[in-house]
Amino acid sequence: MKQGYIAALWLAMWLPAAAPAQGGAHVHGAAHLSLVQEGGAVTVALDSPLEAIVGFEHAPKTAEQKAALTEAAAALKGPDALVQLPAAAACRLTDSDIDLPFMAADVDHGHAHAGHDDHDGHADVTASYTFACAQPDKLDRVTVKAFARFPRLHHIDAEAATAAGQGKAVLDAAHPVWSLPAKR
Ligand SMILES: [Zn+2]
C-alpha cells in the first residue's frame, strides 16, 4: 500500500484539483477520472456526482430509485462499466473501493439519514480500481465506457500520471478514448 500512498500523494501534489475529497467542484454531468501508474501498479479512480449515475442525489424514495442504486452498485462493482484498458497491457484487477451514497443498510428504512449526503444536498460517487499490469508500457490509452452506461454523464475531466509523463484530457461520448502520455 505504501506505493499506492506515494502515488496518491504525488498526484495530489501535482493535481491539487484532482482530489475530490478535498473540495473538488461538484458539477452535474461532469466527473473526474484519474489514472496513476507506478511500475505495474495502475489505479483508475472516478469521482462523479451521484446525479450522473442514478439521476438523483437523495435517499431513494421509490422502487425505481432503489433499483437504480442497486443497478449502479452492481455496475460499479468491477471496472468494466467505466473503463477498458488495452488488452496488451495485461492488467488484472487486484482491488476496488466503491463508495455509493445511500447504499448503507438503513436505506431500506425509506427515509434520509443525516450525514448520508453532503450538507448542500449533493452527493458524490467514488470508485477506484487497482490493477496489476504485466506490460504497463503497453498502457497507451483508456477507453471510457461510462458514457454508454451512464447517459447522464456529459463529460469527464481526466488526469494521468504515468512513467511516460503527465496528461489531461476532456472526454465525452463522442471522444471516449483517452490517449495516455507517450514516452518521448
Ligand atoms: Zn449535485
Explain how this protein is built.
With 184 residues, the protein is α+β, with helices and mostly antiparallel strands. It has one domain (2-16, 27-38, 50-179). Helices cover 20% and strands 34% of the residues. The chain contains 4 helices and 9 strands; from the N terminus they run αββααββββαβββ. The chain has helices at residues 2-14, 50-54, 63-76, 146-149, and strands at residues 30-38, 41-49, 83-84, 91-99, 124-133, 141-144, 155-162, 165-172, 177-179. The chain has a 6-stranded mixed sheet with strand order 4-5-2-1-7-8. The chain has a 3-stranded antiparallel sheet with strand order 3-6-9, with no helix packed on it. The radius of gyration is 16 Å and the shape is globular. Residues 14-23 and 105-117 have low confidence and may be disordered. It binds zinc ion. Zinc ion binds next to loops. Zinc ion (ZN) is lined by residues 26, 28, 49, 51, 57, 122. InterPro entries: ZrgA-like. It holds the Pfam family ZrgA. Residues 1-21 form the signal peptide.
